[in-house]
Amino acid sequence: MSTFDDAFAVVLGNEGGYTDNPADPGNWTSGHCGTGQCRGTNWGISAAAYPNLDIRTLTQADVAAIYRRDYWEPVAGDHLPAPLALLAFDAAVNNGVSRAARWLQAALGVAQDGEIGPKTLAALAARAGDGATLCAEFLALRLIFMAALPTWSRFGAGWARRLCHLPFEAMTFTSSGPEQAEQ
What we know:
Blueprint lengths: L2 H13 L2 E2 L21 E2 L2 E2 L13 H13 L9 H14 L1 H12 L9 H9 L4 H17 L4 H19 L7 H5 L1
Antiparallel strand pairs: 1-2, 2-3
C-alpha cells in the first residue's frame, strides 16, 4: 500500500460515516448552523465544503478520489515524510488545506502563505531528522486552533482524542516521502 492508502484508512476511520448533526456547521450547505440545508457529512466530506454533492450516498471510492485531489495533493502528501504527511492530510480534511499548510509552515519557521510549494519543501528538507519536533509543533498549533473554536465545548473531547491518537498512528508509517510515491 502507498502512504496515501495508509493515511486514507486512518483519516476515514477518524471521520467516520454519515452524520447530520444540526449543531455541526459543516453539515450545513452554508457552513452556518440553521442556514441553508443540513445535508450532513460523510467520511469528512461535508455539505459546507461540497454543497452540491449528495453527501449521504458517497462511496469510499468517491471519497478516496476527492481526498486525493482536494486534500492529499494540495498538502504535497507524496513529498512529505509519511508521519508528517498523515498529520497534514488529516488536518487538511478536518480543518482545511490552507490551515494545514500554514501550520506546517509555522512549524518550519517559514512564511505562511497556505500553499506547500518549493520553499516549504526546501525548509522541510533542511530539517531532515527533526521529524518528531516538527510533528509535535504541528499538532500543538492545530490543538490551539481547535480549542479556540466555539464548537469545542460540544465536539472538543472527540477532537482531542483524535489529535492524541494521531502520533501513535503516524509512528506506524515507515516511508520517508517522495521515494515512496515512486514505488
